[in-house]
Amino acid sequence: MPTNVTPDYKKAEEAYRKAREPRDRLDCLREMFRTIPKHKGTEHLQADIKTRIKQLTEELAGPKKGGRRSGPSHVVRPEGAAQLCLIGPPNAGKSSLHARLTGSHSDIGPYPYTTHLPVPGMLPYEDIHIQLVDLPPVSGDFMEPWLINALQPADGVLLVVDISDPDCSEQIPTILERLAEKKVFLTPAWPGLAPAEPVEPDKTGDPFRLELPTVLIANKSDLDPDPEEVEILEELLGLRFPTLTMSAQTGDGLDELGPFLFRALEIVRVYTKTPGKQADTDKPFTVRRGGTVLDVAGLVHKDIAEGLKFARMWGAEVFDGQQVGPDHLVSDGDLIELHL
Ligand SMILES: Nc1nc2c(ncn2[C@@H]2O[C@H](COP(=O)(O)OP(=O)(O)OP(=O)(O)O)[C@@H](O)[C@H]2O)c(=O)[nH]1
Ligand SMILES: [Mg+2]
C-alpha cells in the first residue's frame, strides 16, 4: 500500500474488492484512478489501475468491427450462489467435468487445447445453483491473455488434473507460477474449512492481488488404480489443497462437489415472504456466513434495502416471527418477512 492515500481512495479500493459485476468493477477502478494521489510513490499503482481500466473497458465492449479483436466478451457475469472457475493443464478433463456437472455442451476433445472460450454452466445443489465456468487450459507454453480477467469475479477455483498423467506434478507448479506472475494466487484456505496448515496472511496490501480458494480435482480416477496417487502428488508439490477425486467418465465422485462448495464457501440460504402472504420456499436468496437481513433485502430489491425498518424472522436461531433489525445475522434456512 503506497503511503499518503486519501480516505476517498481507500473507500474506492474497498468497493473495488467487493464489487463482483464487471461494470461495477469498472466504475470502482475509475473512482480509484480519480482519487489516487498523483505523486511518485503511487506511479506503479496508477499505471496498474489504468491498464485494468483499459482491459475491462475492452472486455465489456465485446466484439470490435473491423478491429483486431472479435468474438464475445470473456468475462462471465456471476450468477447463482457462487462462481467457480475450472483451471488446469490441457486435456485434464475440465470440459468433460463441466458438461457432466452442469449439463453444458462444452467442447470435449481427445487432444489438448480444445476449449477456447469461457463456458458458463450451473451446478444444481439442493435448492440452489452454483456457477461453474469452463476455461481454456493453462500450460508452460500458453495462457489466453484474457484468462486473468475472467478469473477476477470468481469466488474460487477448481484446479483440475488428470491424476493418471505423471506430468501433473510438473504441470501444477507451472500453472501456479503463470497465475502468480499476474497476481492471482491459488490458496488452500476456504472460509468454511479448517486449514490443513496455517496460511500466511497477505501483507502486501496490493489491491490487485487476487487470492482464490482452490480445490484440487483429481480427475480420471477410473484410469488410475493407485489410491495413493493424490498423496504422492501433494507430497511432491508440497501443497495441501483440499482434494476431491472424480471421474468425468464414470461419474464417480461428482456428487461430492456441491456439498463441498456449499460448506467451504459458507453459503447461507434465506427464504422470503411478503407480509400477509405465503412464504416463497422455492427459491432462496443466498449470502455468505456473516451476511445480514439488510444484505438479503438488497438482493430482493435496492429500494427495499433502502426503506427497510425491520424484519420478522423464522429459523433455528430465533423464536417464530421474532422482530429483528437490519443488521441481524441470517442463518441457513431462515425465513424473513421484510417491513418497510
Ligand atoms: N478415462 C477418462 N477420460 C476422461 C475423463 N475426463 C475426460 N476424459 C477424456 O480426456 C480427454 C480430454 O477431455 P476434455 O474434457 O476435452 O479436457 P479439457 O481439460 O477440457 O481439455 P482442454 O480444453 O484442451 O484444456 C477427452 O478425450 C475425454 O473424453 C475421465 O474421467 N476418465
Ligand atoms: Mg476443455
Q: Total number of β-strand segments?
A: 12
Largest sheet: 7 strands, mixed
Residue-averaged pLDDT = 90
Distinct small molecules? guanosine-5'-triphosphate, magnesium ion
Shape: globular
Q: Percent range for helical residues? A: 25-40%
User: Beta fraction of the residues?
Assistant: 15-25%
What is the SS-derived class? alpha/beta
Radius of gyration based on Cα positions: 22 Å
Distance between the amino and carboxyl termini: 41 Å
Number of helices: 10
- Pick out the low-confidence regions: none
Order of helices and strands: HHHEHEEHEHEEHEHEEHHEEE
How would you characterize this protein structure?
This protein is an alpha/beta fold. It is about 30% helix and about 20% strand. The protein has helices at about 5-20, 20-35, 45-60, 95-100, 145-150, 170-180, 230-235, 255-265, 295-300, 300-305, and strands at about 85, 120-125, 130-135, 155-160, 185, 210-220, 245, 265-275, 280-290, 310-315, 320-325, 335-340. Strands 1, 2, 3, 4, 5, 6 and 7 form a seven-stranded mixed beta sheet that branches. β6, α7 and β7 (about 245) form a beta-alpha-beta unit. α2 runs antiparallel to α3 (about 45-60). It is globular and about 60 Å long. It starts with 6 loop residues before the first helix and ends with a strand. The relative contact order is 0.10. Bound molecules: guanosine-5'-triphosphate and magnesium ion. Magnesium ion binds next to α4. Magnesium ion binds near residues 94, 114 and 115.
